[in-house]
Amino acid sequence: MSRIQANLVLLLAAAIWGGGFVAQSEAMEWLGPNWFNALRFALATIAVLPFALREGTRAGRPLALRDYGWFLLVGLSLLFAQTLQQIGIQSTSVTNASFLTGLYVILVPLIAVLFLRRRPHWIIWPTALVTVIGILLLNGGSLSALGDGDLLIILCAAFLAVQITLTPIAVGISGRPLALAAVQFAVCAFGAGLGAVTLEPISTSAVMSALPEILYGGILSSGLAFVLQIIGQRYTTAPQAAIFLSSEALFGALFGALLLAETLPVIGYVGCALIFAAMLLVELVPELTRRRAAPA
Fold first, then answer.
1. Would the pTM of this model clear 0.85, i.e. be above it?
2. Is residue 296 part of a domain?
3. Domain for residue 16, yes or no?
4. What domain range is 243 assigned to?
5. What confidence tens digit (pLDDT) does each residue in 235-258 have?
6. Domain tally for the chain?
7. Residue 158, phi then psi, degrees to nearest 5
8. Using an 8 Å Cβ cutoff, are 112 and 165 in contact?
9. pLDDT for 118-139, tens place per residue?
10. Taking the chain, what is the end-to-end CA distance rounded to the nearest angstrom?
11. How would DSSP label each residue in 114-151?
12. How far apart are CA 118 and CA 106, in angstroms?
């Protein structure tokens, strides 16, 4: 898979996640945040597990304890991110949640430099800054109205940055992307399930009322989109992946407007244009640089 194809795969994952914000918000009418996460990640585990087992039969070696250790770290970072996001989305809009989640676009290259001692391509820094400005404009150009839910979403973005950074490392060590997907989903289902049983009520009628949202969240937003993320990140860098995945803010705003009648200020469209420009630059500039540096 080429880098361009990988980035398009990540863009598809972002589109699915954008619709997932609507499902997450709507499900809160019937279910607590932990029950929703537990059910959707349990469903995602069931959906991916057969493919992970098939992958294992073709692998050159069995998974080692070290592999499971990395899988656990990825799963825990996703669990914390999704728990914070699901709680935060109860007290903020789908639009705000999708935009603020995209702040991981600036955190991923910072993690690469500070902890992994890896220098991303120089274009990552200006495009990350442009993306953050775009996210700010999508939020109306002001941070003064941020509430508790918004702050939880920002913290969620930090954990997502860790998950995005760790994912290619775990896949590179194990060579088993579907096994990683199955284990991280199982970790999320188990962790959220513990919180749900301890803290939240549940009923059959509530589950049935939220079933469409659970199915979307489990099969598409979790099962398919996170698998696409893992596959796409095998062929591109974590900072570039963060730029493309951050387009979920655009799709979240689109689905929020179409399905929930949320409005976007005029300045928000400028933010959309900036994010789109950042995605184009992060794709085109490295390719043009590579071609100029190639011998004739």
1. no
2. no
3. yes
4. 3-290
5. 887 777 877 787 777 777 777 767
6. 1
7. -65, -45
8. yes
9. 777 777 788 878 877 877 786 6
10. 25
11. HTS--PPPTTHHHHHHHHHHHHHHHTTS-STT--HHHH
12. 15
CB burial of residue 68 (10 Å; 0-12, 13-18, 19+) = middle
Joined tokens for residue 211: 């079933």
Place of tokens 């702040």: 103
Q: How far is CA 94 from CA 98, 146, 217, 261, 278, in A?
A: 6, 14, 15, 11, 22
Token pair of 250 as six digits: 């655009």
Q: Which residue has the tokens 């940055």?
A: 161
Tokens found for residue 206: 């509530």
**Residue 295: inside a domain, yes or no?**
no
DSSP secondary-structure letter at 90? G
Give residues with Cβ within 8 angstroms of 32, minimum separation 6: 196, 199, 200, 201, 202
d(CA 32, CA 71): 26
186 in a structural domain:
yes
The C-alpha atoms of residue 19 and residue 26 are separated, in whole angstroms, by 11
What are the C-alpha distances in Å from 122 to residues 119, 199, 232, 233, 279?
8, 46, 21, 19, 14
Q: How far apart are CA 99 and CA 262, in angstroms?
A: 13
What is the distance, to the nearest Å, from the Cα of residue 206 to the centroid of all Cα atoms in its chain?
26
H-helix or E-strand spanning residue 174: helix 148-174
